[in-house]
Design brief:
Pfam families: ACT, PDH_C, PDH_N. The protein is of the alpha/beta class. Helix content is 43%, strand content 18%. It has a nine-stranded mixed β-sheet with strand order 1-9-8-7-6-5-2-3-4, with helices on both faces. Bound molecules: nicotinamide-adenine-dinucleotide (NAD) and prephenic acid (PRE).
Length: 380
């Protein structure tokens, strides 16, 4: 389920809502998010770091409006709190925030590359009227630190949100509204499902890249030609081996169970190749390439206007927590491809309406049947 913000153009002049956004850890991701709101009318961005010199850098680079080393000062009266520190620190930050008098309705979110543990931890905390909503932008780089931050990092990328049954619809809606400035496509999914999918398409590739580089580096100890001759192929598949060691240590350890299974599958995949080679099975090897070409060449490109939603329906949903997540999960489990989701209306006294868009008529038909089976009103 996605909300496509690629065509978002803020209307001008924007009324000054005076929204305070606190960002803990203004590195690649925190800094790139900060740049999306920095200087927009009505937004005040406060960057936090435990390190005074980092705070000075955030401000002098113009990435945030203000900086502080005080967690309390950063969080005070914040409308949104973004935790952009390594995954291994997220729960500690939540514990600290739970001790503070936060603004009622404040949304605390994170950008961690794993979601299940932080979502479960937040669920067990009393956040004093604040709401936690897990998040993960599916964009990044092998670079790190605030110097690597860019305003267009998230443009046309997917931005995952992981609401639970307890998450108020209003919080999801407010977050989606704020994320429009990133021009990312918001997609809602379950945190455990997130970790198993992102483990496969992001964490496993990082492990493979690092393993491959280290294997070749060992060969290179006896002959420096390995390094000299490394061309496009080696560089393309290993760019991400230059990623930050601490950020990735935390991600991989956190998603250990998923990765151990994926590594078993990877080893089996390589064993199948070894067998094809032993048998000199050229046709079998070509077939593997044909299969891979088919999937690889169909990966969606990250450019404007790629997602065209042609088939749409509307679903009336009462405004209570968890409904979007439930519908998303059901559609996902039924393998129905949703290309866009938009919340048309959602107030306490008015039932919410979701607009769901699909690229395929067949997906629309299946979705209507499924959602009607869930006892929601669906119309066109
Ligand atoms: N790098 C990516 O491609 C990418 C993409 C999406 C999400 N993420 C997630 O974003 C988060 C931040 O990653 P990043 O790539 O921006 O890293 P980064 O190194 O660029 O930024 C990390 C920030 O956290 C701070 N920090 C580092 N260690 C800390 C500690 N022990 N305690 C408190 N603060 C600490 C740093 O000072 C920095 O401001 C991570 O949770 C990561 O999983 C990364
Ligand atoms: O482009 C890269 O360098 C990335 O590693 C980005 C990437 C990815 O694996 O695709 C890395 C970690 C994330 O949490 C999300 C995106």
């Amino acid at each position: 389920m996605t909300v496509d913000n690629s065509d978002f153009k803020p209307t001008s002049p924007v009324p000054a809502p005076s929204v305070k956004i606190a960002i803990f850890g203004v590195g690649l991701i925190g800094g790139s998010l900060a740049l999306c709101w920095k200087g927009k009318p009505g937004y005040r961005i406060v960057g936090h770091s435990v390190n005074p010199s980092s705070v000075g850098k955030y401000v002098s680079l113009g990435v945030v409006d203000e900086g502080t080393t005080s967690l309390e000062e950063a969080a005070r009266d914040a409308d949104f709190i973004f935790l952009c520190v390594p995954v291994g620190r997220l729960n500690d930050y939540l514990d600290e925030l739970a001790k503070l008098p936060l603004k009622p309705g404040c949304i605390i979110t994170d950008v961690g590359s794993t979601k299940a543990s932080v979502v479960a931890h937040a669920r067990g905390l009393d956040l004093n009227g604040a709401v936690f909503l897990g998040g993960h932008p599916m964009a990044g780089s092998e670079r790190s630190g605030v110097e690597a931050a860019t305003i267009d990092l998230f443009e046309n990328a997917y931005y995952v949100l992981t609401p639970t049954d307890d998450t108020p619809l209003d919080a999801v809606e407010r977050m989606q509204e704020l994320l429009r400035w990133t021009r990312a496509k918001v997609v809602l999914t379950d945190s455990v499902l997130h970790d198993s999918i992102v483990g496969a398409i992001s964490h496993l590739p990082h492990l493979i890249a690092v393993g491959l580089v280290n294997q070749i580096a060992r060969y290179n100890e006896t002959n420096d030609l390995y390094r000299s001759l490394a061309a496009g192929g080696f560089r393309d598949i290993t760019r991400i081996a230059s990623s930050d060691p601490i950020v990735w240590r935390d991600i991989l350890v956190n998603n250990k169970d998923v990765l151990l299974t994926l590594l078993d599958d990877w080893k089996a995949e390589m064993d199948r190749f070894a067998e094809l080679l032993k048998q000199e099975d050229g046709e079998g090897i070509s077939e593997q390439f044909r299969l891979a070409n088919g999937f690889r060449n169909q990966l969606p490109e990250r450019r404007k206007g790629m997602i065209q939603s042609l088939h749409e329906c509307y679903v009336d949903v009462p405004d209570h927590p968890g409904i979007i997540g439930r519908i998303a999960t059901e559609l996902g489990q039924a393998r129905i491809n949703l290309s866009n989701l938009h919340i048309v209306e959602s107030r306490e006294d008015v039932p919410g309406t979701l607009r769901l868009s699909f690229k395929e008529a067949d997906d629309l038909e299946k979705a209507v049947e499924l959602i009607r089976g869930m006892k929601y009103e669906v119309y066109f």
